[in-house]
Fold:
Amino acid sequence: MSRILDKASAISVAATVIVTLISADGSGAAAKNRLPQVETQNSAPIFIAEPVVQPVPQTDALPEGTESVPASAASLNELVQAQPQPDELSRELNCLAGAIYFESKGETLPGQLAVGRVIVARSKSGRFPASYCGVVYQPSQFSFVRGSAMPSIDKRSSHWRKAVAVAQIAHSGSWQSPVEGALYFHAARVSPRWHLTRIAQVDNHVFYR
Structure:
């Protein structure tokens, strides 16, 4: 009987030791390895210190060295309307606007811009004079030039104001022409035997590089 009691006593002592060890696992060194508890009710909001940056949408690439189109201009017409109308133009812009006026004042805005961009491209090509006026007044290049001069222009007209706006856009490269890179054009009503690469026809002109 005493053996049975001794055995029961030993089992009781062992059980007490086990319970003590299990309860100790929730504190001290062992607890340091546990993640802290997060309250799910009545807890204050947590703010992230880092800024959230959204990617900027990519637009169609413009030719190298040109400026981006202003975000407010959804069309070439809007961009034309947004251009300033200075009281006095520089000589170079006056030559560029004059060429646009005489060559394409009755055409669409893309057609006028295409003419302007050809003059800009020529001035940068190294194959033509390095200024807009030099390009425009180069002998035998533009039929409206008479004796190294342009005819008079009604600068109060809407056609002139539009030509000035398109000249500023062509100069800055702020809208891509449908015939970027063209260096030559002729009226669609004629068919010169040019051994050049045709790009496209825009309104009444055919453009080549």
